[in-house]
Input
Amino acid sequence: MTGLDSNQPNCFKCKHFYVTWDQQFPKGCRAFQFKGRQLPSKAVERASGHPCLKFEGKSK
Output
């Protein structure tokens, strides 16, 4: 089990996701302009009750 639901957007595949230099808040989202300890998609779902609507896949 990876910890991600099949219907949950995968932040690691999103163009807005980034890894920060801040050890206290290592994961960030440029679309929502925040950083935190957990994956941004989990934080968005916890706060809004809906899956992330800003997910955009990375171009290859």
User: Anything to note?
Assistant: The beta strands are 17-19, 27-29, 34-36. The longest strand covers residues 17-19. Residues 40-48 form the longest helix (9 residues). Helices lie at 40-48.
